[in-house]
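REQUEST
  id: r-88c1
  op: predict_structure
  target: Letm1 RBD domain-containing protein
  payload:
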Amino acid sequence: MTKVQASSSYSFTVEPPMALLINGLRCRPLYRRRGLRSLLTHAPSKHALNPAKDHITKALEEAQPPPNLLSYPKRWFAKTFTEPTMVLLSGLGLLYNGSMQSLQLWVDYHQKGKPVRTRSEIRHVQRNKRDLARVFPATIFLALPFAIPMLPFVFRKAPSFLPSVFITDEILAKKMHVTQTKRAELAPILLASLGQALEARASRGNAKNSSVTQALERRWKNMFNNNSRPSEGDLIALQPVIRDNVNILDLSSSQLRVMGQFVGLALPWIASQSRLYGWVDWILKDDELLRQQGVQALTEYELLEALEERGFINISGQKTGRLRTMLAEHLRFTKTASDVISRRSRAASSRNEPQLTTTGLPLEEIASMTTLILTARALGVHERS
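RESPONSE
  id: r-88c1
  status: 200
  body:
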């Protein structure tokens, strides 16, 4: 027993200290177990092995994929041929439908005696007539070789060359931007030409009502020299001196050409005086139709069309509510000016039976309204936020 105990005592003392007894069985130390050996050793992390690996992986994940060279010809073909062709086909469909609607209005007028009275119908007939007038030159252009690839350039640089049914929202935005830039450049030239015309007539002694005219001239010069934007009342007060000295009946051809360019007349050097008179005559009539209809019923396209037609400058990128406000202020301005001119014309005893126009104003008065409206546009009277 002593030997057995001694041997067992000896075997216990030489056994490694980490030996375990599990379920009555003696097991090997943990560090000898092959599957658990990694638990007793320190395994370096991935960050320690390669600290820049995560940054590289993150950069690769955030990087844009390389461009697919095979997609360039496809995009070029779609932009050069497919998209212009779709715009062309859809525009032809709109032109056909619009022509049929105009024909129906014409038939109703001649057979049923039903006149075209609403502004929407009048604008539709006018727009359709302009589009049909542009069909012939557009057809000649499209008959040229490689005309389809040139359509994006034409839409961008000369949208008025083609019918309005081909003008998309993107093309309209570019057109408004080009118009704004051009008018911003012409505005100081227009004001300078009007000031020179007034000074020239005053220096030659041709100004009418010299005492009143001289006072208004000083007011005109002070208004522009102080770089202050006048109000509607200031411009309406200046209307007599505009009527007697710088209306479109008294201006030179070069000054009329600047005014024609400002309102967007094609070939403004040809019959600019009669065309400007036709422009202001239509504006005054259309203003009356808009007062009856209201500006709230107009779409954004119709608002841009009306403001661009009236010579407004800063209309590109404006919100619809702001566009309505600008048009409403213009309608109030022309209404006030027309009422003042009408009362003044009736009260003027020196003018015997003045020649009335379709708007009910004398010829020289409506001629002065052209200068009055364009002066307000060049000064930005109704474009203040």
